[in-house]
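Many introductory courses stop at the sequence. We go one step further.
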Amino acid sequence: MRRWPWALLFATAIAIVAMAQVSLAQTAAAPVAVSTAQASPVPDAAAADPVVEWGASIPFVSAYVWRGFVVADAACFQPTASVAVRGLTITTWFNVIAGSDDAGWSEHDLIVDYTLPVGGWTVSAGYTNYYFPTITDGKVSNEFYGGVGWSGLLSPTVTIYQDVSVGAGTYLSAGVSQSFPVSKSGITIAPAATIGYNHHQWVAGTGWSDLNVGVTVTLPAGKHVDIAASFNYSKSLQPDWFPSRGYSGITFVVH
């Protein structure tokens, strides 16, 4: 728990940098007034204020599988909430085990992400604080990451994660996904695949670690509510580290 202030300070620093970049960009882009027409004395408050977006979801999953690890081989639910402003997103995420003798809250992640669009690309950098309330030693771990993504065909992404605490090590993830509309009512189907390379992150070895393939079907359930069903299979590429595992889930999304 002593590392929580550091996480909050890091989030504040990213927010200040992000706001400063936007402010400088707006100042540099301001045109020189040459018209003699009278300007409106009423400021455009809507244009001046940053656009704040929020979202929340509650996924129910048959097992908690993460980067190939079967973290909880039992039914779980994972409430999530986020707030975003000008590319900066702060997310809080919980895992709660529901279907075993170990039922209860097992993990909290605080994620701070800054994503910048660059043409058809997006560039992201961020930080994750992991907290494990049921573990006696090593309750907290900290991870930094950076990645790039392409908004075109197959939406390829590459992200590298560096844990600097308990899970000290590097994890590289590369993935593709594509969403297809299947009805005029807004139903979509999105197949996806990711492959991971692990270098001593929570394991003693190095190598290609896991291949995850799956599909998500999303159904609009209202103006601000979606329901998504997902089916996934995590193929272990290192049987000595963890097993292969199929899992599924259903998510209620509010946006």
